[in-house]
Design goal:
Number of strands of chain B: 7
Order of helices and strands of chain A: HEEEHHHHHHHHHHHHHEEEHHHH
Radius of gyration of chain A: 28 Å
Number of helices of chain A: 18
Structural class of chain A: mainly alpha
Structural class of chain B: alpha/beta
Order of helices and strands of chain B: HEEHEEEEHE
Strand order of the largest sheet of chain A: 1-2-3
Oligomer: heterodimer
Chain lengths: 421, 175
């Protein structure tokens, strides 16, 4: 046997040793790793998915290759229910649309019905509606900001937000009698007036709420972890946002100045001095900043409204629209008949159709209503602001990291109740 | 309320507009023939600056005095520069409930069209992904049609088969 062996050359200390040196096969390190695509179900019950949304996420490594958003787990047949009850009985259903700011839905619905009938509600009622709306706007934004902070790892801001929310909720409970599902207001005005001494209480609560907002602001806005997670993530361009039909703080974060309160002032919004914050980049950080700033603007509106609110009636004196006062119901035949007809047959809304919108916490809350002249709505379409916003999420997170989905989902503030009707 | 946009649409595409009217609150409406809808929408978006896509819904006119054709699909588009909505309507019959899709013009039309398909059974031809959006695929019928009874019940559906579950290393809970 020929000796084909060559004597082993002595080890060269300069040559890379693959056993101990990771860079010995540098080309292999750079080689593309063939990974299997993984499908992850986020939701419908997941701590980071508000409400009951299921995101089917297709992952390539840690990047989202594609995603599909499945909604409808909270569908309650809002429209069908409304078509089968009287106009007034629709009101409790509207509470459950955006259950974080129920009063805005109540008032938005009432405003559209009043427009369809052609009613001008008393000035004091308009002020009460502004006050209720702005209280609940604070409530809604606090929930969103607090939850965002919590899901990005900061529990303290959430607790501060909950404490501030609790103060707002107490005032709301004194005003409406309910903490969450307010069912406040009636067609033609309000069902009850501000409680005695309530205005001073709101002023005091607002002081405390704004103190807590400053606290949250200080904990989050310049927090390194928070900024890293939110800045330049979930970016959407202004053109795309408009194309998808975004409204509210999410659209304004893209630099588009559209607020229904300024564009088409309703109630008494044109009497208040307030600013509409507008962002630049349309990322999660800007959407967060919009909400922090709107909290401060809502406080400004509230304080002006509480100062300006005039005395006067809170509901129209028309027994075809509003229930007669109780002494009239028990004492006069006209009162009994009006009461009976309103309760049994409902308010006779003349046949016709209307599209009307108000600015809810997440954007334009639109109503398209058709009446056939009976006491019940023929059609109630609600344009929930969260619906078009959620529809854009699969496209804005495509190709991004899975971790970016969490802040994106937080800052768009999707509310299951209104999106899934 | 201004009728600017619909005046321009009528001048540009007289063949597309079937009817114009004002509703009780002064809102200006135009009824568009279904086949002309995409070009009217593109004209509104590109020439007249109606860019913010607000919403789509439908009305089942079964119990109304005027109910032929049966369905009305309503469109709302907003102009950020003029601060007004434009209101469009397309009427489709029960026999051929089909409207051309607006998804190529407005991305926001996607989910709204799925909503209308889900609840009224109106097909949007050319829609890239016309599935039900709020209800489940096995749902029978379209619940916002007026002939769908309020207390109608759906049959129980068999559990969907789970396919292609990839379990990673480990026992996956199986001992």
């Amino acid at each position: 046997m020929a000796d084909t062996h060559k004597p082993a050359s002595p080890p060269n200390p300069e040559a890379p040793n693959p056993d101990i040196d990771a860079y010995a096969h540098e080309a292999e390190l750079e080689a593309h790793l063939q990974t299997k695509r993984m499908y992850v179900n986020m939701g419908p019950s997941h701590p980071a998915m508000h409400g009951t949304v299921r995101m089917k996420v297709e992952l390539e490594g840690e990047n989202i290759a594609s995603s599909d958003c499945e909604i409808g787990f909270l569908h309650r047949g809002f429209q069908k229910s409304c078509e089968n009850v009287t106009w007034t009985q629709c009101l409790p259903y509207t509470d459950r649309l955006n259950y974080v700011s129920a009063m805005m839905n109540n008032f938005g619905f009432l405003n559209a019905v009043e427009k369809l009938i052609g009613l001008e509600i008393p000035e004091r009622a308009q002020y009460i509606r502004v006050i209720g709306s702005e209280l609940h706007r604070i409530h809604d934004h606090l929930t969103c900001v607090g939850a965002t902070g919590m899901e990005l790892g900061g529990f303290a801001p959430f607790l501060f937000a909950v404490e501030a929310r609790e103060l707002v909720m107490d005032r709301v409970a004194e005003l409406t009698g309910a903490r969450l599902t307010t069912n406040f207001g009636r067609i033609g005005g309000m069902n009850r007036d501000l409680p005695e001494g309530w205005i001073e209480k709101v002023h005091k609560s607002l002081d405390k709420v704004m103190e807590l907002v400053t606290e949250i602001d200080g904990l989050l806005t310049r927090n390194r972890i928070f900024v890293d997670r939110t800045k330049d993530t979930g970016v959407i361009s202004a053109e795309d946002a408009i194309d998808y039909g975004w409204t509210g703080p999410c659209l304004r974060a893209c630099g588009v100045n559209y607020d229904v309160r300024k564009a088409k002032p309703y109630w008494v919004y044109d009497r208040f001095d307030f600013d509409v914050p507008v962002g630049e980049k349309g990322d999660n950080y800007d959407r967060y900043l919009m909400r922090i700033e709107e909290l401060k603007q809502s406080e400004r509106i509230l304080r002006q409204a509480l100062k300006q609110i005039p005395a006067g009636p809170i509901i129209l004196d028309d027994w075809r629209i509003a229930l007669p006062p109780k002494p009239e119901v028990y004492g006069t035949i006209e009162g009994v008949i009006s009461h009976f007809k309103l309760v049994m047959e409902g308010i006779q809304v003349p046949a016709g159709e209307v599209y009307d919108c108000t600015e809810a916490a997440n954007g334009e809350l639109g109503w398209y209503m058709v009446s056939d002249g009976s006491g019940r709505p023929y059609k109630v379409h609600v344009r929930a602001p969260g619906y078009p916003i959620l529809s854009a999420v699969p496209s804005i997170i495509k190709g991004k990291m899975l971790a970016d989905l969490i802040p994106t989902f937080d800052t768009i503030n999707m509310i299951g109740g209104e999106v899934e009707q | 309320m201004s009728t600017f946009a619909l005046d321009r649409v009528t001048a540009q595409f007289p063949e597309a507009v079937a009817e114009r009217y004002l509703d009780r609150t002064g809102g200006s409406w135009a009824v568009i023939h279904a086949e002309h809808l995409p070009k009217v929408a593109a004209f509104l978006k590109n020439e007249l600056d109606f860019k913010l896509f607000t919403s789509i819904d439908a009305v089942d006119r079964l119990h109304l005095a005027e109910n032929d054709p049966r369905f009305e699909v309503v469109y709302f588009i907003y102009s950020l520069s003029r601060h007004e909505h434009v209101r469009l309507k397309v009427r489709v019959s029960e026999a051929h409930p089909e409207v051309p899709t607006l998804v190529p013009v407005f991305k926001g039309a996607d989910w709204w069209e799925r909503f209308v398909w889900d609840f009224y059974g109106i097909r949007f031809t050319g829609h890239p992904d016309l599935r039900r959006v709020l209800l489940y695929e096995e749902f029978q019928g379209h619940p916002l049609r007026k002939d769908y009874a309020l207390r109608d019940r759906q049959p129980l559906i068999p559990e969907r088969p789970i396919k292609d579950i990839f379990r990673g290393p480990g026992t996956s809970g199986v001992s």
